[in-house]
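Morning - NDP inputs below, output right after.
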Amino acid sequence: MKYIERVLEEIKQKDKDQPEFNQALEEVLKSVEVIFKKHPEYEKMAILERLVEPERIIQFKVPWTDDKGVAHVNRGFRVQYNSALGPYKGGLRFHPTVNLSVLKFLGFEQIFKNSLTTLPIGGGKGGSDFDPKGKSDSEVMRFCQSFMTELYRHIGPDVDVPAGDMGVGGREIGYLYGQYRRIRGISERGVLTGKGIGYGGSLARKEATGYGLVYFLLEMLKANNIEPAGLNAIVSGSGNVAIYAVEKAMQHGIHVIAMSDSRGYIVDEKIDLKAVKKIKEELRGSLKDYPKLAKHGQYFEGSVYDAKLKAEIVLPCATQNEIDIKRAKAIVANGCIAVAEGANMPDNNDAIAYYLEKGILFAPGKAANAGGVATSALEMSQNSMRYSWTFEEVDEKLQDIMKQIHEQCTDAMKKYRLDKINYVAAANIAGMQKVIDAMIAQGDY
Ligand code: NDP
């Protein structure tokens, strides 16, 4: 479609140095043609141009000193993308690969993911190229304090509410929150989510993204009359999302036979999740120590997707662009029937096109991993009410939200008469239409 092609081309020219952002734009915009065919007036209102441009980008320096007294400077960012539906909401990522392209792709996707949750939150994302790996607790604390010393002036419970992402877990959120409270001089718990349970965190937030991913997977399998128990699964990653996806998958009788980290992967008929948790959550170590700790299983260097393991279910929960067309072909050749993304954009656009061509049930991250941000929004509600729900109450709400997201996808498939099962187009259409409606209603042009 000419309008979409034109906008994509303009951004490609303007943001030549932002490959991840261009990739995410292409994936989303090419799948929402039906919206723009139905509403030709959107072009005159420059809806797409307004959607693809962040409302605000903040970039700042983060100076900090290591334990030996040596000074370092990292880059800090916050991309406040779209607030038509509510305060900006989205995680902070601390990883050496963080740059503006990565954060704009994540922020853009976040707008529609948050819209799908049906909760009142806009989209944003932030982070730093700081690498927490190998740093002491006090180094991480000093970095977080310096990061917040700039960020605090741009956020607030009704403005922008960051959370965790890769490299930012409970420890980092605690240090960030402490510094915010110290500078602002008020106890404003709703400013960050993913906090510790003792100071305003929500039960089940830690588990939410992984559990939510499996709840979505179960809905997708049920809609296609597939029984999950007894199926084999490969899960990439062994961080927050992967660990709790494996926990919930196992509870439903799915056999997880492999997990991975940034260096290698483990293969084990009976994965010992306690051992994985110990290595990753307590020791912050490598999976290569797994066989020794679990006393079974094997560790290999390289990507789990090059191992040609036979599995019906694949849950990529590590990072973006892990799966290209070659790996997608191997996944399908090894018996896969369903892929559900716990990570953001782990499959590139060629891989997704291949799954759709082969009739693989494919759940895009925007829909399948929305349980984390949804539970963050539940944490915001609990903070406003000064009240805490039980684990079971939060988990029940999470299950309802994931069911609703699945329903929105199947409704969009019917309403827009998509010619095959296409959760990618359906999630993008359902998420985007609400944002466009809100922007127009608010005279945002
Ligand atoms: P963590 O930092 O907890 O875990 C990331 C995992 O991915 C680690 O096991 C890490 O290995 C592995 N990894 C990192 N880089 C690579 C690579 N290049 N190849 C293979 N594995 C790699 O992050 P999260 O679990 O929080 O996030 C994972 C993904 O899920 C991200 O895409 C994130 O944006 C997305 N997500 C997270 C949400 C959340 O609530 N946390 C919500 C929605 C999406 P190692 O241990 O060696 O570092």
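Note: Residues 164-167, 209, 237-242, 260-263, 280, 317-319, 322, 342-344, 369, 372 surround NDP (CB under 6 Å).

O.
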